[in-house]
Input
Amino acid sequence: MPTYTATASAVNPLASRKISAQSIAKSHWQPQERARHAADWVSGNAQIKPTVALASRVLGVSEPLIREALKRHHHNGNSTPTALARLSQAWARATPTERAEFGRAIGVNVVWDDAVAPNLT
Output
């Protein structure tokens, strides 16, 4: 049976940088600094965690409609995702390779015993 060996990979600190829209709104950045952050966002080197207000402005939809969609999307009646919703979303976004690595990382027996076997009966 092959064994899994974790390999180190180079990490680009900019690519994983996350900025909340709220922190941007409350910052006192000069235009040049705002432009640098905008350029990072556009080029994919930074992720912006949007607020409902930002999403409303960017997508041209009302805030109440967004909040209602969040409630439906998270299946729990409020706008905070449940652990199950977060797991489901992460699984849906994962590549087949990432899914296989996940199974190896937590152990195939854990996946089987905790997730598959209970659904067989």
About this structure: The longest helix spans residues 31-42.
